[in-house]
Amino acid sequence: MDIGMIGLGRMGANMTQRLLDGGHRVVVSDLNAEAVAASAKAGAVAASSLADLVAKLPQRRAVWMMVPSGAPTQSTVDQLTPLLAKGDIIIDGGNSNYHDSMRRADELRARGIEYVDAGTSGGVWGLQEGFCLMVGAPAGAFAHIEPALKTLAPPDGYAHVGPNGAGHFTKMVHNGIEYGMMAAYGEGFELLAGSKFDLDLRQIAGLWRRGSVVRSWLLDLAELSFQRDPRLQAVEGYVQDSGEGRWTVQEALDQDVPLPIITLSLMRRFSSRQQSSFSAKVQAALRNEFGGHAVKSADPPTS
Fold it and tell me: Among residues 114, 171, 223, 244, which one is catalytic?
């Protein structure tokens, strides 16, 4: 099929390549001209602007966005909307908040344009392994873009999970679970690394990948990490978050659903970014006040 791809970062470029390898015609656009040129060299059709991209697609047009959530996604939708015709489809493959996806779908439906929220997982390995796609969409829009979904995903790796919003809601929860799993692996390997047995963490990660109940793709990646750097000495313990974990916790609060593990894993990410915890200072001071426990002196402030 013919499809447009807006956003040629690591995910968008790999998705474009996978679509090209599957025989699709892909028209590409990005603010980075070098990224457009690289995809064009691989076989994509280069577009100089969003208007040019739309003009190079036959009706019924399908345009896939792989841009950051929030203002960049909204700006792209706003620019595309007047260029498209009734029956055309905008697909958001980024990590948008599902509330935004539902609102955008309603606004575009009033203009006769269909919206698809496609929660996308697979990271930089998606080109090789395929992308897991959680799709929220009207049935007709899903059917129209299904040839592209089938190419992008591994076998049984895509699904129409519900109406607009369901795709990004499912991806949000997926990422919340990911937070908890990563935190559990981190804690377990920290205990192994600090033991008196001088354990080979790469060996153990590889062992657990085969037949163990804790095997997963994250464990596959852990083995690769330990193979490159057995004690992760080149890695700073600073863990960023891109928003989905926060949205998952907020949704749990709104629905009165207890998510203690996912919530704590998010808090642990916050604590990883602190050079000095004021909370810990308060606790140390209180122990000193009520029990006379020793307090480790902080370095004097520099002027």
Answer: 171
- Active-site residue 171, yes or no? yes
Tokens describing residue 139: 């049935």
At which residue do the structure tokens 């950051």 appear? 68
Q: Please provide the size of the chain in residues.
A: 303
Tally of CB atoms within 10 A around 207: 14
Distance CA 96, CA 99 (A): 8
Candidate list 107, 129, 146, 178, residue with the active-site label: 178
When pLDDT is cut at 50, 70 and 90, the band that residue 280 belongs to is confident
Q: Give me the phi and psi of 28, to 5 degrees please.
A: -120, 150
pTM: 0.91
pLDDT digits (tens, 9 = 90+) for 123-157: 888 999 999 999 999 999 999 999 999 999 999 99
251 tagged catalytic:
no
